[in-house]
Amino acid sequence: MKRLLETLVENNREITKKGNLASYIPELLNADKNDLGVAVITLDGKVHSAGDCSKKFTMQSISKVVSLILAIQDNGKERVFEKVGMEPTGDSFNSIVNLEIKQKVKPYNPMINAGAIATTALIYGVSEEEKFEKILNFTRKVTGNNDIDINKSVYKSEKLTGDRNRYLAYYLKSNNTIDGDVEDILDLYFKQCSIEVNCIDIAKFASMLANDGILPWSGERVISREVSRIVKTIMVTCGMYDASGKFAVHIGIPAKSGVGGGIMAAVPKRMGIGVYGPSLDKKGNSIAGTHILKELSDELDLSIF
Ligand code: GLN
């Protein structure tokens, strides 16, 4: 396995040149465009990795999986899906059109920004600090890494430049889709996006999803089988934004990407995969990371379809 992963990194390193770093969050421009890494955790808990696997990056949209899980755990699936839909969009992850013209009140799904702002708003806690602790502690638990923390510079950069998310959130509030203080909700959203991980961390997270909610390395159940199923299904249909259909046809693995360059992919009953490559394609997905997943899927016959 290690040899296969090393070959994949080597073969795809050149592809990083064809994409670009995310620039709309200025701090993300500090990443190294050539970085590429992949980690696989099989369900016996074994870790295999190659390339730039210890490089840290912010979860960005991968954190949408965390807020969806916590929102369902706190509110039940009925209430969550009253507030946010479960249909894919053909639009970009931060699209305004999609909210304002097509559906008006409910964001299409929890994997686009508007949908994630809505699920983040549903997380219970007596204070904003408590809510963030909950997000952070959950992330630490499912990655088995207690050192995980927020990248403060990215958080500040997002908060300073996040006007599009501000627009989405105030629009949701005006339609009563979210309750509470909009700035507090946004602050929590920016913080969860700025949680810093590496490939191995997200591969571990994915291995829990692949294992129906049980941590492979300890046997502990952290989410129900049903929540794990719902999350993986939404990852298939919506996890790669408006490239989800193509990704399902060519790769066929439930996955969630983030503009920090990470992709978290969960192969049911088989393995968790974490990929990092901050050079992105036009849809905001890691360009070389997507290629690695394609080759890995072909090589090991990982498509669920
Ligand atoms: N923090 C980013 C944003 O809100 C997350 C988007 C992403 O990773 N696609 O725009």
Automatic annotation (TrEMBL):
Give the E.C. number(s). 3.5.1.2
Keyword check for Heme: no
| Pfam families to which the protein is assigned, alphabetical | Glutaminase
Q: Which GO terms describe its molecular function?
A: glutaminase activity
Substrates-to-products reaction catalysed? L-glutamine + H2O = L-glutamate + NH4(+)
Q: Name one GO biological process term.
A: glutamate biosynthetic process
- Which amino acids does the record list as binding substrate? S61, N113, E158, N165, Y189, Y241, V259
**Which Gene3D superfamilies does the entry link to?**
DD-peptidase/beta-lactamase superfamily (3.40.710.10)
The cross-references to InterPro entries, in alphabetical order and at most eight, read: Beta-lactam/transpept-like (IPR012338), Glutaminase (IPR015868)
How it assembles, according to the record, is: Homotetramer.
Family under the similarity heading = Belongs to the glutaminase family.
**Protein name as catalogued:** Glutaminase
Native organism: Clostridium cavendishii DSM 21758
From which lineage does this chain's organism come?
Bacteria, Bacillati, Bacillota, Clostridia, Eubacteriales
